[in-house]
Give the backbone structure.
Amino acid sequence: MSGRETVRVQVNEPLRAALAVVDAGGVAAALHRGQVLVPTTAKQGLIAPLVATDAGGRRLLPAFSGPDALQAWGAADRAGSVPGKDLVDLAAAQGVVGVLFDPAGPNPVEVGLQELSLALDGLATGPDGVTRTSEPLRARAADDVPPRLLDALLACPLPPGAELWVFERAAHGRPLLTVALGGASVTSSSAQRIAEYLGATPGLPTVDLITLDEGVLRQLADQVPAARVR
């Protein structure tokens, strides 16, 4: 990891949105696709991550969704841009118990290292930008799915044998609307087509589009059978 001018680093907006609803799964997905800023310090002539200690003596690795959040913290003069998917390995090497995201706001969130590692291990993002998960979901029926979204899901191109679901994922009291695609016939290109179709359809709410392996798909069917659209 090398230091760089933080003004050149863009805000990781998906990470910031996930922090706002305290959603560890969303944090992991945003990390898998983007970068974070980690403050650095000089130790014996080498640049190393800056580790913080809380009031109880626990060691935490501060990480930031953007330059403004780092500047609000004000406890470091420099930072390195780190691929989010490498954050767990970096934190583990420092002997910390967790990662403290945006400690000075806008939404400070601490995620334990084990929880973050498990969430990242369950994700794989293909070149199409669609998140694939084998992690169990905390799903519930959506209270109010916009009719325009249902219409779009009913009309979007779906490969034979594929399933399409819409539901809410629990995020500490706030719902996260999710569209899931599953089935043996689902490929990267079919997921890409659906992502492009939804992205090009005006008036739709922001949703997470994920694909599920067979085990998670069956778990979803047991949890919220009415969430299946097609």
The chain is about 30% helix and 30% strand. Residues 1-7, 125-129 have pLDDT under 50 and may be disordered. The helical segments are 13-20, 24-33, 67-73, 87-93, 113-121, 147-155, 188-200, 214-223. The first helix runs from residue 13 to 20.
